[in-house]
Amino acid sequence: MGIIKNHGFSRLCFVRKVSLFALFLAFFLCRLSDGTVNAAVELLNPKQTVYLTSKNVGHYDYNLEGEIGFSMELGKYEYIVESSLRTDNEFVTSDMEWGLRGEMDKQTEKCRHALSVYPQYPGSANLFFDDERKNTYVLSLNVLPYENPIRTLKITNIHNGKNLAGKVEEAYRFNSGKGEFGGLIYSKKTAVPKLKVEVKEGWKITAVEAQRICSKMVLLQNLNAQSKTVELKKAGKGDELLVGIDCKNVENGGEARIRFGTSNW
What is the pTM of this model? Predict the structure, then answer.
């Protein structure tokens, strides 16, 4: 007896399969159109090299802008779930937190997120976090031991200022214990004080900041110099000077933020 083929049943199965596929496709397109399906957004800087802020491992100066150079721009459907932040090396990244999320750009519907990490030991670590769509992001950190990039730093008529570079040999922040903010003190009235800084081989100066209390700040950014001389505002005897010098390692891109004074600026 030959096999009887039921062509009507076969056609019915085929129609059902096509209908199911069409329904699935319509559902997917609908989800895509309302912004609930999307690939993970790439990090702007997925790999970061940072230096410890002090030779005293296990200690971090929270006033030295612990926010690393990582940021990302996400849309309104892609907010980061802050509780999802985790690491594969708690020894290195023993302290981290989300920075304040910026306001959303109404035109692009993008919002920038920033992560504050306070590494206390050298080593490598990966940070993981998720957005509301359960996309996972990875930030790789390479934490290096403390290194002083400053070769020489001279400022006209600063009290005990012959070896300013040596004052940050142990940590990136120097507190003189004088003045209102622990800054550098002028030993006498100076009409045109000058700041001259030179960094060690393998480093570049990226920014110089100098501010005398109650006067305008001198701010030079986007520098790419081995040495720099800057004219400062006139000063009187006993006036306090706050100084900031940002440096970048040419080989690995790691940054060092040197600060004279305790003010977080």
Answer: 0.75
